Amino acid sequence: MNKVVKDAAAAIQGIESGMTLMLGGFGLCGIPERSIEALVESGVNGLTCISNNAGVDDFGIGLLLQRRQVKKMVASYVGENKEFERQMLSGELEVDLIPQGSLAERCRAGGAGIPAFFTPAGYGTEVAEGKEVRVFNGKPHILEMALTADFAIVKAWKGDRHGNLVYKGTARNFNPAMAMAGKITIAEVEELVEPGELDPNHIHTPGVFVQRIFQGSHYEKRIEQRTVRPKA
Q: CA–CA separation, 110 vs 146, rounded Å?
């Protein structure tokens, strides 16, 4: 089955205002840059975005926040975005902050068809408010619900027209879990190859989870926080 579409604009067809989106990446590493740009251009709004980070002010999900296209942000870390901070403190933006491991597992559970699970992470904090608590092996755990999305948008290093994906290094991060949890999954890749070119033993996301794929270009691959040692 050929799942290739022309570009990001074609890939995001069907995404409407008010939908829930998962966007892969960690910080600025492995984010679907071209798809986010297409969403900005499309003008859809009222979005609920599930992503580990909220981008920075002028890149990634930060671009959607600038245009007031995001209604709610579900994330584990949001400290690099002043516009996000402003919208959150002013009450313009709904925010659900989740411990990072819980966020990853909630996405993975959604993709695996597991509706909920118990975890000790967050017990005794605001994270646990209103959630069921049970004790396992003498330790309190809170009930966390799985996360799914209308569309999951991920970024991979290589992919084929069947939708099989390979991620590179730490750019793998949240992408495989989110790819499984979307009703429709869009993959943008740096290199689109022919079926058979990817070693089956090295495929991270099988094509069964991907409905649309396209090859992007001119990726910036920014470094969010650059730290170097001073010259001797």
A: 5
* Torsion of the alpha carbons at 77, 79, 85 and 91, rounded to the nearest 10: 20
Q: DSSP letter for 114, please.
A: -
- What sign for the dihedral angle of Cα 140, 142, 143, 148? negative
| Residue 45, C-beta contacts closer than 8 angstroms, at least 6 positions apart | 17, 67, 68, 69, 70, 71
Q: Does domain 8-114+147-215 have CATH number 1.20.1250.20?
A: no
E-state strands within the chain: 20-23, 47-50, 70-75, 94-97, 116-119, 133-136, 139-145, 149-160, 165-166, 182-193, 212-215
Residue type, 85: E
Pick the closest to residue 209 from 154, 137, 129, 157 (CA basis).
154
Q: What angle do CA 16, 20, 22 make, to 5 degrees?
A: 115
Torsion of CA 69, 74, 76, 79, to 10 degrees: 30
Model confidence pLDDT, tens digit, residues 86-141:
999 999 999 999 999 999 999 999 999 999 999 999 999 999 999 999 999 999 99
